[in-house]
Amino acid sequence: MKKYGIESLSFYTSRYYLDLIELAVARGIDPDKYTTGLGQHLMAVVPPDEDVVTLAANSAKSALAGIDPNEISMMLVATESGIDQSKALGIWVHNLLGLSPQCRVVELKQACYAGCAGLQLGLSYISQNPHKKVLVIATDIARYGLHTPGEPTQGCGAASFVLSANPKLVTFEPEQGIFTSHVMDFWRPNYSDTAFVDGKFSTKIYLEALEQCWKSYQEQSGRKFEDHYRFCYHLPFIRMAQKAHERLARLNGKETTPDAVENSFIYSRQLGNSYTASLFIGLASLLENTQEDLSQKRVGFFSYGSGCVAEFFSGIIQPGYKEHLKTDYHRAMLESRTRTGMADYESFFTHKLPQDGSHYVISPYNTGLYRLSGIKNHERLYETKP
Ligand code: COA
Q1: Is the whole-model pTM more than 0.70?
Q2: Which helix (H) or strand (E) holds 12?
Q3: Beta carbons within 10 angstroms of residue 61's beta carbon
Q4: Atom 40, ligand 1: which residue's CA is nearest?
Q5: Of 3.40.47.10, 3.90.980.10, 1.10.510.10, 1.10.1740.10, which CATH number belongs to 5-384?
Q6: Which amino acids bring their CB within 6 angstroms of ligand 1?
Q7: 8 Å CB contact between 135 and 74
Q8: Does the structure show a pLDDT above 90 at 301?
Q9: How many angstroms does the Cα of residue 107 sit away from the middle of ligand 1?
Q10: Which positions are catalytic?
């Protein structure tokens, strides 16, 4: 049987972070609440010249290394931090990356679930067009607002993966347990640049959706909990995924050990919530931080997007996958970031581009290869660094 899946996977996050202990002290909160209660340590913060386009382009550049860009015949970009109501942000990315004019570009939206939608739509396309490749990018900046309960669960990141009939990392199984329900746990109206969220309700719905998805997936597949060697969950904050895994184990009358999930948390603990990207950064973290050979092992995946749509599905790690990981690049990227203090974090957070059509130039901060250089006549301007 022909196999389809992920040929290449990479991620990118901003070059600045805030230590959550510093945030806790500034907000008069016990730091243990953030590090233990939420399970988060560092939070990526974006400087004025980084946005979802630059995050996306930088991650995709790395995912495409060694792949002929002309082979990409479709690019699906998942985000809930979109910069335009009409034009897909992927077109800016397409331009920065120099992809083929014959490549179809579309933006997908359903809160944090859209990256999973991109994966499944891309796989369907590849099964019909096995000689083509699809680039899926999940890119987001999680913003809840200064002094809000959601503040320590912000962050940013983009994950990019190439889907093809030459899956060097992971193939996916056909069963998909899906759950959709109209709930108002998290949303962001067009006029707001921060999310409205009923945080506690969102954590409750996340767990309920997991149960529903699991039951549907199990009915379709006949697989048991213990048929899955490792699990990757949507990661709004690490403690959420730990609770989800404990809930799933309990539902199945099983004990669970941290081994089943811990390695998938390592990167997100250092960059925070990346909404659509978090599940795939979790996958990169699992593959790159597990010494043991995971070849032929089954991983269970759970994606949750507020509002809500959720999905449980599974994949098989491919033999030889270790040779195709970008571990050194990702680790060096995380280790070389600049620590910001509260003043820079708050000034980055409150920075706004003019909305009156004036020409505004953004002075350079530390970024990857691509940066937002300014805005003119309401048009965002990007540049590729030499
Ligand atoms: N030491 C250790 N743990 C502590 C603590 C301390 N001093 N003080 C509090 N905690 C624990 C709480 O017991 C709680 O853990 P529990 O849920 O296991 O009981 C956890 O820290 C969070 O504290 P709590 O007061 O319950 O919540 P909060 O008001 O800080 O809000 C969120 C937490 C996640 C709801 C909030 O950050 C949020 O709205 N985030 C955005 C929405 C989101 O991420 N939703 C997830 C689904 S998509």
Answers
A1: yes
A2: strand 5-12
A3: 20
A4: 150
A5: 3.40.47.10
A6: 30, 32-33, 36-38, 144, 149-150, 153, 197, 199-200, 202-203, 206, 236-237, 240, 304, 306
A7: yes
A8: yes
A9: 32
A10: 80, 112, 234
